[in-house]
Automatic annotation (TrEMBL), chain A:
Source taxon at top rank: Bacteria
Protein's name according to its UniProt entry: Alpha-ketoacid dehydrogenase subunit beta
Upper lineage: Bacteria, Pseudomonadati, Verrucomicrobiota, Verrucomicrobiia, Verrucomicrobiales
Swiss-Prot/TrEMBL cofactor(s): thiamine diphosphate
PANTHER family assigned: PYRUVATE DEHYDROGENASE E1 COMPONENT BETA SUBUNIT, PYRUVATE DEHYDROGENASE E1 COMPONENT SUBUNIT BETA
């Protein structure tokens, strides 16, 4: 039986609810309806008191989670779309993120962000906010690319005493599945080399891992061996694994689906340039979506964000430097 | 029922203690001994202390004070050393020098630490109440305070609406002190009275005169009792006037003299004293003795805090929890 990315998230939520009575879910339409993407389907029936529909109030959803976490619970909140979390921004970055530093009391909450683009979603249902949240001290930000990672990182995020921003990719929800589902023993903060190579390193995460894999397959036909690092976690960022890879390949392309200014890719490039300049045989490159709001029409959308084709072109430029 | 004759005297004591504590801090500020700002609750002590008094830590109550709630903090049982140490940046204070002045709290002891973003504490208190209910506790109430300015924020609206939807035992006390920093009510809201909003949220609304000790105690205790008895969120709007600037850096030139000469401009410490004496709840001599005792405690608290060590940047742990 195939287990999809979204199934892994639901299974992890179910397991956490089952094992720990302090876990509860709170968000819009997550109850009997099962969530806008059905990530919580069936959980209300099994845990009626701990799977709770919220009014359309992102700020108050996050605030309630902070209060409950202070009281010793482990809330998992769903922002229906990552984009909508901008309304909860204050509570997350000013209240949750600073709380431990100010008071010595941790805030163990998880904010689930259905992130990234799908065709036809447009400017308000497609954004990647990993870099925005990664900017703030006190938050952990994870962005799984694989079914098993989604499961393991979700369980770890819920058990974590910090506020964790959990970026789930909507495109992967029902596109990515596995027959061999096995929990990973790789913690938050650790990246993973998912394809070995010697000519260039691609550092990326979430849906872009799969685009990069396709690009690497294409380039392999011409004899190029591309190494791919799945960052898995945006904050803390596993630059050690990236630097070790660049030490082997001498070239870096950082890819993230977010906008180019101050993106996760920018951060990776900056870290490698400042800590591993002597490892580089070519200028480190970054590849992002275009610096315009995310377009609606699929023709525009598919050219707006990085794809296997655009990653391949960027890699060829890097390889031929 | 917690509203006994003794309550007025207890609340007054908290009001007076807060006033004396704040006077001392304001004096230290003028002497250049305090970094950042100093924000006083002058004129709002009766409202604040009434809420702090009505909430009982022993019953599991939680309290989210705001900028002008020193009196409520005292009444709720905050150690006055927390006040002095936070303003002075002592490492022995609850914020260890990492946050200052009025932002302090002891979240694990029922008093969350505020952030400067107004309205944010309403939903945080909701979360604390929600967690207690999920755990199976009962009989607790959460109090959150607000100025009239914060009622214009989305966070305030979302928080109150959320509490109503969840039927949480929340009491929100809005102290309408006529000016949000310098912005007068006419530029803040366009309804006749903020208490009318209670109906819009589907919660009970109450009003009181903010410098009338008896009205504040009676009204706020009733609201807290209602919430404790399962009647859902309560909104209290208290008419008041800030008898100082927004902070001690602000001379409040924008507050017209005429408003100070109205009944709103009367100091609740003075009217409270008159009330206690007129009702024979205390004599002038007893209240003078109380004042002297509190002044003496303030001197002790300040002296202790001023002897505390300051943070050492070379020894401080700069990590947040996620970096441990």
């Amino acid at each position: 039986m195939s287990i999809y990315y979204i199934d892994a998230i639901r299974l992890a939520l179910e397991e956490a609810l089952d094992k720990d009575p302090s876990v509860f879910l709170y968000g819009q339409d997550i109850g009997r309806f099962g969530g806008a993407f059905k990530a919580t389907q069936g959980l209300k029936e099994k845990f009626p008191d701990r799977v709770v529909d919220a009014p359309i109030s992102e700020d108050a959803i996050a605030g309630l989670a902070i209060g409950a976490a202070i009281e010793g619970m482990r809330p998992v909140i769903e922002m229906q779309f990552a984009d909508f979390s901008s309304i909860a921004f204050n509570q997350i970055v000013n209240n949750a993120a600073t709380h431990y530093f100010r008071t010595g009391v941790p805030v163990p909450l998880v904010m689930r962000l259905p992130s990234g683009g799908t065709p036809g979603s447009g400017p308000f249902h497609s954004q990647n906010l990993e870099a925005i949240y990664g900017h703030y001290p006190g938050l952990k930000v994870v962005a799984p690319a694989f079914v098993s990672d989604a499961y393991s990182l979700m369980l770890e995020a819920i058990a974590c005493d910090d506020p964790v921003i959990f970026c789930e990719h909507k495109f992967l929800y029902r596109w990515l599945s596995t027959e061999r589902f096995r929990p990973l023993d790789l913690p938050i903060g650790k990246g993973r080399i998912i394809r070995a190579g010697k000519h260039a390193t691609v550092a990326t995460y979430s849906a872009m891992v799969h685009e990069a894999l396709k690009a690497a397959d294409e380039l392999a036909k011409d004899g190029w061996q591309i190494e791919i690092v799945d960052l898995r976690t945006i904050k803390p960022l596993d630059t050690d694994t990236v630097l070790a890879s660049v030490a082997r390949t001498g070239r870096l392309l950082a890819v993230s689906e977010d906008f180019p200014f101050g993106s996760v890719a920018s951060e990776v490039v900056a870290k490698v340039a400042s800590s591993g300049f002597d490892l580089l045989d070519a200028p480190p490159m970054q590849h992002n979506s275009k610096d315009t709001p995310i377009p609606y029409h699929p023709n525009l959308w598919s050219a707006h964000r990085p794809t296997a084709e655009s990653i391949k072109i960027a890699l060829l430029e890097l390889l031929n430097f | 029922m917690i509203n006994t004759q003794d309550s007025y005297l207890d609340v007054y004591r908290s009001m007076l203690f807060a006033r004396r504590l704040e006077e001392r801090i304001a004096s230290l500020y003028r002497a250049g001994k305090i970094v950042g700002g100093v924000y006083l609750g002058r004129g709002q002590e009766a409202v604040s202390a009434s809420l702090g008094y009505a909430l009982k830590r022993s019953l599991g109550d939680v309290f989210a004070p705001l900028i002008r709630d020193q009196a409520g903090r005292v009444a709720f049982g905050e150690d006055p050393l927390d006040f002095a140490r936070t303003y002075l940046g002592s490492v022995k204070g609850p914020m260890r020098g990492r946050d200052g002045n009025i932002h302090r709290g002891r979240p694990s002891e029922g008093m969350p630490a505020m952030i400067s973003h107004l309205g944010a504490s309403v939903s945080v208190i909701n979360g604390m109440l929600f967690a207690k209910r999920l755990r199976g506790d009962s009989g607790f109430v959460g109090g959150a305070t607000s100025g009239e300015g914060a009622t214009s924020t989305g966070a305030f609206h979302e928080g109150l609406n959320q509490a109503a939807v969840e039927n949480l035992p929340l009491v929100v006390v809005v102290t309408d002190n006529q000016f949000a920093y310098s912005t007068p009510n006419a530029r803040q809201f366009a309804c006749d009275s903020l208490v009318d909003r209670a109906e819009g949220y589907g919660v009970a609304g109450h009003t009181c005169v903010g410098n009338d000790l008896k009205e504040c105690v009676d009204t706020i205790c009733e609201a807290v009792d209602n919430a404790r008895r399962g009647q859902g969120p309560q909104l209290v709007v208290a008419q008041s006037l800030r008898l100082c600037g927004h902070g001690e850096h602000d001379d409040a030139f924008y507050v017209p003299d005429e408003i100070r000469e109205t009944e709103l401009g009367q100091d609740c410490i003075d009217t409270g004293r008159d009330f206690l004496i007129s009702r024979s709840l205390a004599t002038a001599e007893e209240l003078d003795a109380m004042d002297e005792e509190l002044r003496s405690r303030v001197r002790e608290v300040m002296a202790t805090a001023q002897r505390d060590p300051q943070p050492d940047p070379f020894r401080d742990d700069w990590r947040t929890f996620s970096q441990l």
